[in-house]
Amino acid sequence: MVNTKFMALGATALRSNLVHLRHPYKLTFSITYRCQSRCITCNIWQMKPVNELTIEEIREFAMKNSYFRWIEITGGEPFLRGDVVEIVRAFRESCKGLYLLTMPTNSLCGTAAELRKIEEILSLGVPKVSITVSLDGYRELHDRIRGIPGNFDRAIAIFKGLKELRKRHRNLFMVFGYTMSRFNQGQFARTFAEVRKEIPDLAYNDFHLNAGQVSDIYYSNLDLDLGVSKETAAGEVREFLKMRKPQVGAIPAIEGVFLRKLLEYIKTGKTPIRSRSLDASLFLDSYGNVFPSIMWGRRIGSIRSTNYSLEPIWHSREAEEVRTLIKAGKEPDSWTACEAYQAIVGNVSSFIL
Ligand code: SF4
C-alpha cells in the first residue's frame, strides 16, 4: 500500500515546480557541531560549540513549524547528543506529515549504544528512516582520512547492526556514504571489494557516492583542497552507475539523476540544477541560525529572535533578497545530496529534457 505521507511529500515536492511554496517541506538541521572524528576533509571537529539549542528550544521550534515532511538531522555527529531520540520525538509528535528522516553517522559513538538509540528512533513510527554510515575508503584509507584508528571496523559493525535491525524494523534503510576527494581518488573499487569481504551480500546500491564539497558555514573548510582529478572522479561515478542495479521507486530514480548530474558537476564545477533553497528547504544550525542551505553562509535570521517561529524569517525582506540572488544564479556552486534531491524534484523539466 502506498503511504499517504509519501504521497503528500511527493505532491508537495512536485508542486514546487509550479508555485512558490508557502512553507518549506524539508529541514536540514545540524543538532550539534560536536564531532569526535578528525577528518582531513572537514573542519567541523575543530569547533568548540557552546550554547547550542536545548531540547526545550527544539520542541518549541517543532511545535511552531509543524509542516516538515522530510527532516535531515545532521551534525557534527548527531548521536553525540544524549537527547537525539527526544529531538526526533519532538518532530515526530509535531510534524504530522513527516514521512522521511535521514541521519548520517561516523560510527564512533559506541556500536551497541548507537544501535539502541537508532532502534528507539525507529520505534517512534516515522514511515522511513534512512541512516548513512560514512565510509570513505578501505580500512587503512578510511582510518587515515577520518584520523581515527579502527573507524573502518566500527563503520562495518554499525552497518551490520543496522542490517539486523532492518529484520525487525521495515522502516529502516541504510547506506554507506562515500565522499570522493583527492585523498581517496581512484580507490572506490578497492574499498567496495574490502567492504564486501566483511559483508558478503553487499551491493553497489548499498553505497551513496558524493563529491567532497567546501562551504563557509557547514564544513568550514574553505581552506582545504579537496579537488580530485576530474577524469578519475568521473570515471569512478560512471563505473558506479554501470554497477548499480536498476530499482523501482521514486528515491532510486532520484538517486540515479543525482549521480548523472554529479558527473556534470565534476566536469564543470557548476551546480547542475537550480537549487530550491528557501523554497523547498532551509538549513538550521545548532545555534538556531537560518541559512538557505548547508553550502551558503548567508544567514537570514535566528529562531531565537523570533520566539522559535520560522514565519517572520521566511517572509522577511532578507529572505526575499536571497531568493532573488538564487534565481539570478548567485548561490555558491555545489551538488550535495542535502540540497540536490529537492532541486531534482523541484525542477522536473530540466532533467527530463
Ligand atoms: S565530515 Fe562528519 S565526521 Fe568528519 S569532521 Fe565533519 S562532521 Fe565530523
Strand segment count? 9
Overall shape: it is globular
| Average of the residue pLDDT scores | 91
- In the predicted model, the low-confidence regions spanning at least 5 consecutive residues are none
The N- and C-terminal alpha carbons lie at a distance of: 31 Å
- How many separate domains? 1
How many individual helices?
Answer: 13
β-sheet strand percentage: 5-15%
CATH topology: TIM Barrel
CATH class: Alpha Beta
Cα gyration radius (Å): 19 Å
Bound molecules: iron/sulfur cluster
- Could you spell the SSE succession in H and E letters? HEHEHEHEHHEHEHHEEEHHHH
Class by SSE composition: alpha/beta
* Main sheet strand line-up: 6-5-4-3-2-1-7-8-9
Describe the structure.
The chain has 353 residues and is an alpha/beta fold. It has 13 helices and 9 strands. The model has no long low-confidence stretch (mean pLDDT 91). Helix content is 41%, strand content 13%. The structure holds iron/sulfur cluster (SF4). Iron/sulfur cluster binds at residues 35, 37, 39, 42, 44-45, 75-77, 106.
Topology:
Elements: H1 4-15, E1 26-30, H2 55-64, E2 70-74, H3 84-94, E3 100-105, H4 111-122, E4 128-134, H5 139-146, H6 151-168, E5 172-180, H7 188-198, E6 207-211, H8 230-243, H9 250-268, E7 281-284, E8 289-291, E9 301-302, H10 311-314, H11 317-327, H12 337-345, H13 348-352
Tag the structure with descriptive keywords:
353 residues; TIM Barrel; 41% helix; 13% strand
